[in-house]
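CHAIN AND CONFORMATION:

***
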Amino acid sequence: MRRNLIVHQHFERNRYGRDWVCGDLHGHWNLLMAILGEKDIDLETDRLFLLGDLIDRGPQSADILNWALQTDNVFSVMGNHELMFIGGAIRPGYREEHRRIGGEWVDELSFGQYRNLTTKCANHLPLTMTIETAEGPLGLVHAQSPVDDWCELATIEYTDQIAIDCTWPWNRATGPGQSIAGVSAVVSGHIGTQDIVQRGNQLWIDTLETSGEPTLLPVQELVTLARRESS
């Protein structure tokens, strides 16, 4: 992939409201809006962090992607579906692969809309994030941590391999309960699970496909859960 992506983005602690993390959404924008209302999330002061895979499979991929890119206090890491979406604008082979995994909705976009959205994704969706919380730093990455020490991400330069390592593999979710150093917890989506999966201080919360609803939790609860389970 010729376009360099953002490897890491850091967020200071939210002094004005609550921070929330949500698992994969796959085009279910109305469902997300309903859950935000149920939890009384106010994006004037609260911040919403998404774990990637906003698009494909569901009925509102373009809507949710545009909303996430344009709405203040909404942030997302890059998922493997966004990575394929961007790649499809560069290499025809990627476009066909993206179509096979739920990207048919892109056929309805004009060429200009397609290039505009892929450029915005590349410029605004980092591969990893750190959120400072009252309970310590929380790491976010779509698939799993690409490093054993989270602090390394502050100095890693972009390569296509680091993009793949952040968005595709899930061997850490099936292996022994290793914790990632340099961070209180690492939260990911990607793997499709009925309940939250925990290994050491790592959590996977992609429950949409199996339960019908995405997991949406405050950051303090996620850090506390990871600490309790990894102790």
Residues 111-124 form the longest helix (14 residues). The mean pLDDT is 96. The domain at 8-230 is CATH 3.60.21.10 (Purple Acid Phosphatase; chain A, domain 2). The beta strands are 8-11, 19-22, 47-50, 74-76, 128-131, 138-141, 185-188, 197-199, 202-204, 216-218.
